[in-house]
Amino acid sequence: MKRSTNFMLLTLYLISLFSGITSYCYDHATGEMYTTPIMTIYSALVGIGLMAYVTFFYRIDYNTTSLPLQINYVLFAIRILSLVFTIGYNWCQREEFVCNLNDLQRTHNNFFSRWPMSEKLQQKFEKTLRLKLHMGYVILVGTLLTSYESVKYHFKIDGVLLVIPGMVMCYAINIVMMNYYICIASMNVMLLAINEEMEKILKVCSSLKPWQHSQQIGPGALITQCCKLSDDVDDLAMSQHQVYLLGNRINRMFDIQTACVMLMVYLTNVAAFYMSIPTAQKNQLIIAHYSGWIMTIAPIFMAIYYVDLAIFMRGMFAFRDLCHQAGEMLRESAAYWPAMDIRLEES
């Protein structure tokens, strides 16, 4: 990967550590996740501090009749719930979390040591990863800029040191989903590589029968080739099954956060649609609660947010599609496979 890509990944890792979102460390030499007492204590202190910040929700004026403000309060609450769940999961299921990530890293390394990634696939993987990281960091900056004013107003606090934890609570869900997408991208690139190899095998299989009829390949060489292809198919099928099971385990780790993001998107759409119909009352509300620079940058960040969401959803849906693609290729191409070796047919 390019240095800039590695730098962005390292930055995401450090932000996750600083925010207390992750309570484990990453060994760049071995690629293994591990826990340390210092990181455990730090993560616990950050978690306690953020949980204590929940008490500021009593300062919110819940009697407002403004729909956008009510939705904004709900969005704050959803972010808090997702953060509370993340912190709780990090502690209650930390061993499972670390085990799943280590299994993903191990599976990734073992697979590509056996089936080297093509240059085209590597470029596609890095391009997708860089695009998501760029979008994610822009959204992160936008969340920090817009949340500063919102936290001060809704929680009725002025001190910068008190505002910063509120800003951390606002962007925490974005960091979690960026980490989630990296896991998705790592699994998708393995599935893409599996499907690429399956296509190569199918092309070879479709050529074996014509070669046999034209006597371009002898019986011994044919059997040897069929045995090799059979071993390759078995190996790829096993790898695909491992990635599929691993993907289900990782998806379960982020189920709640994903549901929170979907709910936040829905509520944001409702608020945006409501505010898109201008009235004198809404204009006064905007002037009273939002500064001019917030109203200037908010639409820009909103557009980028939807692009980022589209990239994330495409990655999620691609996982299921890629898992079934190899099976579909085998079923559709079964009629063209030469019935020359029982091992190849069984594979």
UniProtKB/TrEMBL annotation:
Keyword line: Cell membrane, Membrane, Receptor, Transducer, Transmembrane, Transmembrane helix
Residues that span the membrane, as ranges: 6-26, 38-58, 70-92, 160-182, 256-275, 287-307
Signal as UniProt keyword: no
Localization terms from the record: Cell membrane
Upper lineage: Eukaryota, Metazoa, Ecdysozoa, Arthropoda, Hexapoda
Biological process according to GO: sensory perception of taste; signal transduction
Membrane topology classification: Multi-pass membrane protein
UniProt name for this protein: Gustatory receptor
KW Cell membrane (keyword) present: yes
